[in-house]
Amino acid sequence: PIAGTEVVTNPGTPGEDLRLTVDAGLQLAVEKELNAAWIADYATSASAIVMDAGTGAVLAWASEPSYNANDYQAVARQAPADFVDPLISSVYEPGSVMKMFTATAAIGQKVVTPTTLINDSGVMQVGPVQIADADRRPMGMIPFEKVIAYSRNVGAARVARYRALAEVARRRGIGVVAVGHTATDQAETLLFRALRGDPPQALAGMSPHRLLDDGAPPLLLCRPLLEVR
C-alpha cells in the first residue's frame, strides 16, 4: 500500500494454541499393527480408531491403504482414491462395534458375567434372519469373555436376546426413529425391522413395547456384519 494510506479495519485478536489429543507413540503402534493385519489378511482395506472412553478424545487414527503425504503429487496421479479416509468418509455397517454395546449392557444389567458359558453354535435362526459366525464353525460352550474376544456373532446374539438389554439400547438412542406422532409413544428401532423383515409401512404406529409383546426378539445385534472389506 502507499505509505500513509493503510487503514486497519479489523485488528483481529491474538490466537491460541491448538493441541491435538493424538498420542504420537500410540499412533505409530496402531499404524504398524494395522498395516501388518491388512497385509496378513489380504484385506481390501482396514481401519482403526483408538479413543479415550471417558472423554471421547481421539488418541490414534489410521487406515490402510495409506499414502506418503510427502509425495502428494505422485499419489494424486497414481492412486487418488487413497486420499479418501474411510473412517470419516465411508458409510459402513457397525458390525462388531455393536457387540461392545451388547457386552456393556449385559454385564451392567447382570444378565451375564464374563465367565458365563454361552452356546456358540456357529449358526442361529431368528425368525426370517439367519445369524452366523464369519467362519460358520461352532466353538461350543465358551465363556462370555471369549465370545467378545473372538467376536462371535451367534454368542453375542444369544446374550442380546434378553429383554433387559433392549431398554438399554433405547436409552442410548441406538437405532431409534420416530414413526408416529411422538418419539416416546411411537418409536421403532432399525434393529427390530431388520430382524422381523417387515416393510416400514407395516410398522407404522407400533411401539417397541408392542413389538416385545408380539414376541419379537429384542436383539442389540441384528445380523452378522463384516468390518474389514
What would a concise description of this structure say?
The protein is about 35% helix and about 15% strand.
Task: Describe this structure as you would to a colleague.
- The longest helix has 17 residues, at 24-40.
- By secondary structure, the chain is of the alpha+beta class.
- The protein has a two-stranded antiparallel ribbon. The chain has a two-stranded antiparallel sheet with strand order 3-6.
- The chain contains nine helices and eight strands.
- Helices cover 33% and strands 15% of the residues.
- It has helices at residues 24-40, 72-78, 86-89, 97-108, 144-149, 153-160, 163-171, 190-196, 208-213, and strands spanning 46-51, 58-64, 117-120, 123-126, 129-132, 140-143, 176-178, 187-189.
Major beta-sheet overview: 2 strands, antiparallel
H-E string? HEEHHHEEEEHHHEEHH
Stretches with pLDDT under 50, minimum 5 residues: 177-229
Proportion in β-strands: 15-25%
Strand order of the largest sheet: 1-2
Specify the helix fraction band. Answer: 25-40%
Distance between the termini: 57 Å
User: Over all CA atoms, what is the radius of gyration?
Assistant: 24 Å
Helix vs. strand class: alpha+beta
Q: If helices are DSSP runs of H or I spanning 4 or more residues, what is the number of helices?
A: 9
Total strand count, please? 8
Kindly report the average pLDDT value: 75
Principal-axis shape: elongated
